[in-house]
Design a protein that fits this description.
Length: 341
């Protein structure tokens, strides 16, 4: 069996390691000795571990990784299989070390497998119980990796999102394999039976009220207020008076640390056998729930779903305490109704 190989690159100040097929208790001591010798007398070292051959890592191997992360400036593990990634994520390693999945190549799916088109790519039916989203060519591999990490991150907090399995290469484009999204979006259901949606409306209001109380860390999710302010500066299509009100709202309600979906519109919510699922996580952030509600109201009114919004917020408001409700109603009246009525 091949052993782990370690070499030092003076030019880049990087310690490279190509892991063996197994890293477990039997190889832990030898591995620690190799790294200790390679790091001796060196400071501010970056460690890059290639896990292309790695098919098994035990708790002993994970302890080696955690120990290395404490003595280096930066550390990355690349070419990780999905099984190994799942193990590292489950044990919290992905929270402290940058871990990049292995990328396999697939053929471009045929057009008859197309499920839906999205602004940044297309969803296709893939293998049994799976779907693949092929991103447009201008979406970089780094951006796709961030989307995959984002999905894993928010799901770890209990946010109902479709599991992302692996990153794939498709010609000049990159994609993500997901669990197949069975069910219909609320936009589809609203079109079919708008008068029989009260149960789904209440489900969504209850879900969002719960998610808006999830305290989110800063590692992955951006600040929702900062993003809103940045976008307002760049958007010249919003009337000046309305832009001023939205800017005041973003500044007044900045600094929150709870989950903000940022993309709450009927086409982004799916109902399946297990309940509601958030489909597009690209605008997730952390901040004040009011920012999420304001964006949702604007989107729903713009897409002709104002009636849905009214019923949704009526249920959401029932779940708020009186002071919260008064603040929300005033803020939303101030920033939405003058624009749309």
């Amino acid at each position: 069996m091949e052993e782990t190989e370690i070499r030092w690159e003076e030019k880049d100040h990087v310690l490279y390691a190509l892991f063996a097929e197994r890293v477990d208790a039997s190889s832990r001591q030898e591995l620690e000795e190799k790294f200790s010798k390679a790091l001796e007398g060196r400071e501010n070292v970056t460690i890059l571990i290639d896990a292309e051959r790695l098919s098994y890592i035990s708790s002993a191997g994970i302890r080696v990784l955690v120990g290395l992360s404490k003595v280096c400036r930066d550390m990355r593990i690349v070419h990780v299989s999905q099984d190994i990634y799942d193990t590292l994520a489950l044990t919290g390693v992905t929270e402290i070390i940058s871990v990049e999945r292995r990328i396999r190549t697939i053929d471009i799916p045929s057009t008859d497998l197309l499920i839906r088109k999205e602004p940044d790519g297309d969803f296709y039916r893939w293998e049994e119980d799976q779907a693949v989203k092929i991103f447009h060519a201008d979406v970089s591999l780094e951006e796709v990796q961030q989307k995959c990490e984002l999905t894993d991150y928010v799901r770890s907090y209990g946010v109902p999102a479709i599991p992302a399995y692996e990153i794939v290469s498709c010609g000049e484009k990159t994609g993500i394999i997901y669990e197949y999204p069975y069910g219909k979006t609320l936009a589809e259901l609203w079109q079919i039976r708008p008068d029989r949606m009260q149960e789904e409306i209440e489900m969504l209001a209850d879900l969002m009220h719960t998610l808006h109380h999830y305290v989110i860390g800063e590692r992955v999710l951006p600040d929702a207020a900062e993003r809103m302010l940045s976008e307002l500066e760049e958007n010249s299509s919003i009337p000046e008076g309305q832009q001023k009100k939205l800017t005041e709202m973003a500044r007044e309600h900045s600094g929150g640390d709870t989950f903000v979906y940022g993309n709450l519109r009927l086409g982004n919510i799916m109902l399946d056998d297990e309940g509601l699922v958030l489909l597009d996580l690209s605008r997730c952030g952390r901040g004040d729930a009011l920012l999420d509600l304001q964006a949702a109201a604007s989107a729903m009114y713009a897409e002709g779903h104002g009636t849905f919004w009214t019923k949704f917020f009526a249920r959401y408001a029932e779940l708020m305490d009186p002071e919260e409700r008064a603040i929300a109603e005033t803020a939303l009246d101030h920033t939405i109704k003058p624009w749309w009525e």
